[in-house]
Amino acid sequence: MLQSGNVTHKMEECLSAWLQDSPDTRPTPSLSSTSEPESSTMVLHPAHSSRLKYVSLGVLVFQTTSLVLTMRYSRTLKEDGPRYLASSAVVSAEVLKILVCTLIVFMENNFSVRLLKEEIVNKPVETLKLAIPAGIYTLQNNLLYVALSNLDAATYQVTYQLKILTTALFSVSMLGKRLGLYQWLSLLFLMAGVTLVQWPTESEVDSEQAILSSGSQFVGLMAVLTACLSSGFAGVYFEKILKETKQSVWVRNIQLGLFGFVFGIVGMTVYDGERVRESGMFQGYNTITCTVVALQALGGLVIAVVIKYADNILKGFATSLSIIVSTLISYFLLEDFNPTSLFFMGAMLVIAATFLYSSERKPANDSAIKV
Asked: Are 339 and 158 in contact, with CB atoms under 8 Å apart?
């Protein structure tokens, strides 16, 4: 997750103040980037701290669950006319993220473009370093649309937790991090759980339907696995870049967004160019599509505000609740999921692995992942 900068801290102060009962204790934050270092430490009453944790838990669960379910619903909704292009949605999300991060940088620097010019235009080598993770993130975002077009939300949620495995392995190989015994054990649990979730069952009566379903699930599974691999590598690569430089994380995301926009346009032209020429880039867009784009673009920025209040146990609860909520909504509302005993066993292993992996992690050791 993004490491929050000065503006993020001020947003945290606003959130904290909103949750406190006494109006006299509410700070009046300034968006200037020259705030004193001492202001970065907040001392909260235990009751306020507990309330902030519950709010953080709710936001984490809502963002994770709503994006997956809304994306799944938008890819399976039957409507008249063409369906929206996944490549177009990815490009739109990148544009929205660039605009939001640019606004934050302007607010931090009294609406001056000097910082952007110095860090993006005058340092082309540093900017080009972001081309690799940007390209991978663009591929990953497109793959997630493919995955949720072929997998129900519950299966996707459980399987996508394999990104913990890939991130851990890349952290060991690229950053030299060491994993404890419980963490290695949790990775074994994780692989076993995902295997059980993806294990084929004989519940299909119609053989033709079973073949079609099996083919669709295979495409979805390959998309999720590739997305997990790309997520792990790009996240660790981006973290390494952030540790080597002292640049604002918002500027880094603008650089990522610019490259992501270029790669997204190229991908859309190559794979959907004909359909774009026929019906336009925004064909099939509706309220649900715009919601998906907004959730994908802004969800990470919102989490950057609340993540400071969420320890590793709380993050584990958020992941577990998200899987449970996705399962219930997929079964009762979307009606595209029939849980089996193997799924429940696998889901429990994945949830246990999430808690076990977090048990040895230090709270200060935050991973930096692009939003």
From this structure: no
Buried b (16+ CB within 10 A) or exposed e, 191-218: eebbebbbeeeeeeeeeeeeeeeeeebe
The single-letter code of the amino acid at 295 is L
pLDDT tens, residue by residue, 96-121: 999 999 998 899 888 888 888 888 88
Cα–Cα distance, 96 to 367 (Å, whole number): 23
In tens, the pLDDT along 247-256 reads: 777 888 899 8
Closest among 63, 49, 72 to 318, alpha carbons compared: 63
The helix/strand/coil state of 366 is coil
Concatenate the DSSP letters of all residues of 172-232 into one string.
Answer: HHHH-----HHHHHHHHHHHHHHHHHH---S----HHHHHHHHHHHHHHHHHHHHHHHHHH
Amino acid in position 13: E
CB 153 within 8 A of CB 329: yes
- 258: burial class by Cβ within 10 Å (0-12, 13-18, 19+)? middle
Please give the span between the terminal C-alpha atoms of the chain, in angstroms, as a whole number.
7
Supply 356's token pair.
């076990």
- Render 240-306 in DSSP notation, one character per residue: HHHHH----HHHHHHHHHHHHHHHHHHHHHHHHHHHHHHH-TTTT--HHHHHHHHHHHHHHHHHHHH
Token pair belonging to 315: 């993050």
pTM metric for this prediction: 0.76
pLDDT digits 0-9 by tens, 305-345: 666 666 666 777 788 888 989 999 988 888 888 888 999 99
The b/e string for 166-180 (b: 16+ C-beta within 10 A; e otherwise) is bbbbbbeeeeeeebe
Q: Residues near 190 by Cβ (< 8 Å), separated by ≥ 6?
A: 161, 162, 164, 165, 349, 350, 353, 354, 357
Q: Is the pLDDT of residue 275 over 50?
A: yes
* Cβ atoms within 10 Å of 40's Cβ, excluding its own: 11
Are 327 and 197 a contacting pair, CB within 8 Å?
no
Cβ pair 241, 119 in contact under 8 A: no
